[in-house]
Each structure stands twice: as C-alpha cells, then as structure tokens.
Amino acid sequence: MKFPTLTRFLSCSATLSLAVSLLSCVAHAAPKAPIPAPAVDASLSASSGKQTAVFAGGCFWGTQSVFERVKGVTATTAGYAGGSAATATYDQVTTETTGHAESVQVVYDPAKITYGTLLRIFFSVAHDPTELNRQGPDVGTSYRSAIFYTSDEQRRIATAYIAQLDAAHVFRKPIVTEVTPLKGFYRAEDYHQDYALHHPDQPYIQICDRPKTAALKQQFPDLFVEYKGH
User: Fold this and answer.
1) Where in the sequence is the domain holding 103, given as residue range(s)?
2) Residue 207 burial (CB count, 10 A)
C-alpha cells in the first residue's frame, strides 16, 4: 500500500494501517555500529571553502534532520532533484510522475569533512540503501535512494564506496542507490524546511526521523553537533 507524504500529518490514532506502516521505520532502523569508512575518498582540503552534495533517501525531513547536525556542514536545504523545474512542487512530485526525488542539498566545508564521510553517514544512518523506491511508510520513485553527483570526483568516490560495501556484504541485500549527475536542484516549499526540528512531537517525526539523529549521535559522536535552526 502506498502511503504518500500527506499521511505524515495524521495523528497517531488516524488509522491502524498507518500505524502498522510507520512501524516499518522501526524495522529498518540504523545499525548499531557505523559501517566501514570508504577506502576511496577525497583528502581534507588545506583551506576552508564550500562544496555541495545532493542526496535522496526517502522523506527529505529525515535526511535533512541528519545532515544539519553534522560537523562541517554549513547549510542544508530540502528540495527536489531528478526532474524539471516546471514540476518541482510538492503537489506534483507526490503524483510520482515527475522524475523527482525528495532530496537534500548539503553545503559543507571540505577542510572539515570529506565527501566520503558524508556518504558514510548517508548509508549508515540517514536511510536504508537497499530499499527500492521506498523508505519506511513512503512508497514511490520520489522516495528512491539516489546520489546526485556534482563532479567526476563525487561520482568516482560514490561508485567505489557502493562497490566496497556490496563486496563486503555490509547490508543483507544489495545497495540499490542510484548514482546520477545532478541536472538541477529545486528548493522545496518553506514549510518543509527544518520540518523535523519544528515539529518534534509529530508522530512521523518521532517514529521515523528521531531515531536517525539518535543513531548519528551514537555512531558518530565526534561529528555530531546540536542544531537549533536558522
């Protein structure tokens, strides 16, 4: 059964089927230990700067809530990637006909954190990379796992890391994450930005997203920072 993003706004007592579906978030909770670091990675830059990464891993609320708490990340934006500007609205994306995936743009300082470390967090705690076109209760291509690379170096690091993790059988199933060039990133509506931060008691956030930030803090304590919004 498909549970579009709108179901996140329902109360705990909305329907039994929704409650059962939300439990799938628990079933796919992050592992208790971080996965291996990438063997192929960029070196830390000698000087501070700004680089951009774009990841899709299901609902962008949870993906953003993870990366905005990572040391070295200077900004995050929830949005859409994979489709065209003309179809980059929430109402259109949820029809599953636009080619877009709910995504997060991550701006980071390459002198403080590497692209490979961001990938390690993405695969460890931000989502389940073995789920095809779904995450937890959210089903459809807009919830697919994808890395939208912005350079040949990002493509090289991402593909090598996926091959490394699959070869080591780190996950019980093969990784299905797409590695594809970024053609455009389109900012989502204002009410989606920092959603998990502003709605901590919302049932979807409590069940599906707060465990991700807890796993980030537990697995990567040296990289975890508190986030209080802009």
Assistant:
1) 35-219
2) 19
State the amino acid at position 98 in one-letter form: T
Task: Report the length, in residues, of the chain.
Answer: 230
Tens of pLDDT, residues 42-94: 999 999 999 999 999 999 999 999 999 999 999 999 999 999 999 999 999 99
CATH number at residue 160: 3.30.1060.10
Give 212's contacts (C-beta < 8 A, 6+ positions apart): 30, 62, 65, 66, 125, 126
Which residues 6+ apart lie within 8 Å of 84 measured at CB?
98, 99, 184
Catalytic residue among 12, 25, 59, 208, which? 59
**Residue 225 DSSP code:** -
Residue 59 annotated to the active site: yes
Q: What is the mean pLDDT of the chain?
A: 90
For residues 82 and 148, the answer to whether their CB atoms sit within 8 Å is yes
Residue 229 banded pLDDT, cuts 50, 70, 90? confident
What predicted TM-score, i.e. pTM, was given to this entire model? 0.90
Overall domain count for the chain? 1
Strands 145-149 and 178-181, how do they pair?
Answer: parallel
Could you give the residue ranges of the DSSP H alpha helices within the chain?
16-27, 60-67, 90-93, 115-121, 152-167, 195-198, 203-204, 210-219
Domain assignment present for residue 11? The answer is no
* Dist. CA 215–CA 191, nearest whole Å: 25
Query: Could you tell me if residue 186 is inside a domain?
Result: yes
Is 28 a member of any domain? no
Residue 127 belongs to some domain of the structure = yes
* Token reading at 214: 């807890």
143 and 135 Cβ atoms separated by less than 8 Å: yes
